[in-house]
Amino acid sequence: MSDRLPPLTALRAFDAAARHMSFQKAAEELNVTPAALSFQIKSLEEHFGAPLFRRLNRAVELTEAGRALAPGARDGFETLSAAWRSAQRTLDNTTLTVTAGPAFTATWLAPRLYSFVQAHPEIELRLSASLSLVDLTRSEVDLAIRFGYGPDDPALHVEHLMDDWVTPMMTPQTARRFPGEAGLAEVPLIHQDDIRFLDPPVDWPAWFRAAGLPPRDWGGQRFSQADHAIDAALSGAGAVLARISFAGRFLDDGRLVAPFRPALRTLAKYRLLCTKETAARPHVAAFRSWLSDQVAGVATFDRDHDLLDPGDIPKA
User: What is the DSSP annotation of 252-298?
Assistant: First the structure.
């Protein structure tokens, strides 16, 4: 038995047949005739020196040797396809694919993108609103914006994008109905569960302790997404302990107010991630520069609040 690898076309035919468990479907995928596919697999078996499939009546199944080969063949072709796509991306400086969380995309990123598109009409921007893990070395994604603790991958280019913090926000009408600290004892509370993973907690009880206020009934509406919680506050349903990254534009246009000085930092940060090779490409560098300018505008809200670390707040 020779250690020399068989022809790539024969291995490709085997991979397709092993995935479909059908010579007919494999031939359709590869756009060849069933006879041509069968010939490629037969030549592979001759090269190997033993059958890789059992031919049954109207079906096929893998032999023990075929089962040993199939996972490696599948992974090999997936790796090769990913490498080919990555190589193609190095020639494309006009298409930029960015992924960010759905709530961040909807409330922070998308409303600002018009200025980037105007400044760079030559770049086709594609957004993927997802929190799924992305392999930046193999996927078609150029840049990922993620919120969390890390740790940073030393194989990637990682930039600190911005900090985040929370403070009570509500509509001006709600603020007039429940004025001052006394109003906070009565206003309906809106909870966002997307930051429940933070440790120490950044929630209503922690904020009340930071503000030196007595505890109250913590019941109220709960939302799994921050943008939905903010929508509830915008409707006048109550006060939300909103993240500045999501609610800043509503403070800008006056639809929400943040009348209290104390604000709790989230120790988790926003980071921008890409491969080290991607970071310097012209269209990626243009987007990174634009992001930096946008973040500078958000930082102006900091001066209106006293930012406190949750770890410094007295325990309940």
Answer: HTTSSB---SEEEEEEEEEEEEEEHHHHTSHHHHHHHHHHHHHHHHH
